[in-house]
Amino acid sequence: MIKGIYEAHLPVKNLDNSLEFYKKLALKFAWRDEDTAFFWIEEGKSWLGLWEGNEYQTPYHPSLRHIAFQVSYEDLKESLKWLDSIKVEVVPFGGSKSIEPFIRPHQGNASVYFNDLDGNSLELMCYVEVPNKLKHITDKLSFEDWEKLTKSRMK
Hints:
With 155 residues, the chain is of the alpha+beta class. It has 4 helices and 10 strands, in the order βαββββααβββββα.
């Protein structure tokens, strides 16, 4: 029945400013009206709606005001350079002080976080194939530590 996510929405303070921010992320602009705009995440499959209004003041919580964009493993490894090149500041996740992308072996994914102009939490995320012997690891691992660990396990 369910094949994927068709749309997600975020509140913004100023639609014009937000349009420029999301264009920097290389999302394809779909359409806009007075207080709403949509960008294709994957054209013809999923899009992101931006809604101008006071709702941008809603306090952040992971269940609200958060979107994770799927990227490849190699793109995630290069994400800090890419985000810096488009003048987007990376933020630490949770209580961490590091802004480096990290891997969650027990979840089989990797992430890096940043915010939009209104404090909406945005994430670049990819799937990571985790050998069964490593799926018990709940620590967040750097790409360097992950690649050392997985290479040593393959020998």
